[in-house]
Amino acid sequence: MTGRTFSMTANLTEVLHKYSKEVARQWAECLHQEVSELYARRPLEELIATTSQAGEAYLAAIVHHDCSQIDAFIARISKLRLEGGFSLSEVQKAFEIYRTLLIPILVKELRGDALLSALQSLNNCMSHTIFSFSDYFHNMANARLMEKQKKLDEDLKAAAGIQQCLLPRKLEKRPKFENVDIDWKFMPCETIGGDIFNIIHLDEDHLGFYMIDVSGHGVPSALVTFSISQALQPQMGYTIRKRPGLSPDYEIVPPGEVLKALDSEYPWERFEKFLTIIYVIVDIRSGRLIYSNAAHPPPILLHADGTFELLEKGGTIIGMDGILPFEEEEKAFSPGDKILLYTDGVFEFTNDEGELYGEKRFYPLVKSLSGLAVGKVLDEIILTIERFARGEKFPDDVSLMGIEFKEESKTT
C-alpha cells in the first residue's frame, strides 16, 4: 500500500469517525420527521441506535470495501421493517438520506483524489444497499406468500375433507337395501367445490336423494353447501316433520314443500349465490318416486329397455322468494330402471379444440349404457368425458349419483 493511499484511507476513516454521532442523530431526525408516518411512530432514541449501527457498518463498506457488516445489518433491518409494515420504497428512501447527509461533509473535509475516491465508494455502497434491500424484501415477501399459500392449501384440504364427509358414505358403510344399488362420483374442479349430494334414509320404505349446485367454487360456495346439507338432515325438520302423539309420529315432507322451505330460508340476498337443487323421494317398496326440481339439470330416469325420461317438473332457482310454485311429479319405476342425478359439469366443458361436450353427446351416451350396472354406467361416463377433455381442466365441479332398482328377492 502506498503512502498516499494509506493517507486517503486514514483521512476518510477520521472523517467518518469525526462526524459519526452527528450524522446518526441528523439521520434519525430526518427519518422521524420527513420519511413516513411509520418512521414517525418510532421513538427517536430507537432510530438513533439504528442509524448509529448502520453508520458503523457503512464505515467498513466505504473505507475497506467490506460489505459483510452492512449485509448483516440489511438482513436484520429488512425483517424488522417488513414485519412492521414498512414498504420497500420507504426503507430505500430512508437509507438515501445517509448519502445526502454525508456528501456535504466529504466535500468539506476532503480534496482531489481523496474526495473522488470517497464519493465513488459511497455511491457504490449505496447502490449495493438499495439493491440488497430490494432482494431481501422480495425474497422475504415471497417466502411469506408461500407460507400463507401453504396454510390456505392446508385449510382448503381440511374443508374438502369436511365436504367429503357430507357426501354419501362409502359402499361398505351405506344402509343396505336389497333391491336398490347406489353409486356416485365427485370430481371438484378446485380443492373444494360448490356441489353437494347425499342420500337421506327417511324410513324403512323411503329414501331421499338430493343434488345441489351452488354457483362459483371455493370456500364461499362450499359454506352454502355445508349449510344446506345440514338443513336437509331429517332431524332439522325440512325433510321429516314430527307429529307428536300420532302414529306414526312423523310425516315425510313432500319435495315441493322442501324446496319451498329452502327458497324461503336461503334468499339471494343472504349469500348472493345461485342455487339449484333436485330432490327425489323413492318408495322402494311400491316402485314409485316423487320429485321436484329447482332449475337443476333434469335427472334421467333410464329404463331397462334404453328409453329414458327427463325429470323436469319443479320451479326456478332457490332464493327467488317464491315467484313460482315448485311443482311435483310422480313416476313409476321397474326393476332394471336407473335414475341418474348430475350437475351440468358433466357436459358443460370443452376439449383442447374448443368443442363443447354438451347434452347432445351426454344423453346418447347415457342411453347406450342402459344395460350396464349403475356403477359401471358412472365409470363409463367419467372415462368418456375425460377422453373428450384430453387433459383439459374441468371448469366446473363434476357430480354424478346413480340409483338402480332391482328385483326384490323372495324368501321361501
Low-confidence spans: 1-8
Q: What profile does the largest beta sheet have?
A: 6 strands, mixed
Task: Tell me the CATH superfamily of the largest domain.
Answer: PPM-type phosphatase domain
Bin the strand percentage: 15-25%
| CATH architecture group name of the largest domain | 4-Layer Sandwich
CATH topology of the largest domain: Phosphatase 2c, domain 1
Number of strands: 13
Q: Which geometry do the CA atoms define?
A: elongated
Protein name: Serine phosphatase regulator of sigma subunit
InterPro entries: Bact_Sigma-Reg, PPM-type-like_dom_sf, PPM-type_phosphatase-like_dom, RsbRD_N_dom
GO molecular function: phosphatase activity
Organism: Syntrophus aciditrophicus (strain SB)
Textual characterization of the structure:
It holds the Pfam family SpoIIE. It comes from Syntrophus aciditrophicus (strain SB). Residues 177-405 form the PPM-type phosphatase domain. Keywords: Hydrolase. The chain folds into two domains: 3-146, Globin-like (Orthogonal Bundle), CATH 1.10.490.10; 169-405, Phosphatase 2c, domain 1 (4-Layer Sandwich), CATH 3.60.40.10. The chain is elongated, with a radius of gyration of 36 Å. Strands 2, 3, 6, 7, 10 and 11 form a six-stranded mixed beta sheet that branches. Strands 1-13-12-8-9 form a five-stranded antiparallel beta sheet, covered by helices on one side. The longest helix is centred in the middle third of the chain and has 55 residues, at 112-166. It is α+β, with helices and mostly antiparallel strands and 412 residues long. Helix 3 packs across helix 6. It has helices at residues 3-35, 37-41, 44-64, 68-83, 88-109, 112-166, 218-231, 255-265, 268-271, 358-368, 374-389, and strands at 180-187, 195-201, 206-214, 240-242, 250-252, 275-283, 288-294, 300-302, 308-310, 314-315, 329-332, 338-342, 398-405. It contains eleven helices and 13 strands. Helices cover 50% and strands 17% of the residues.
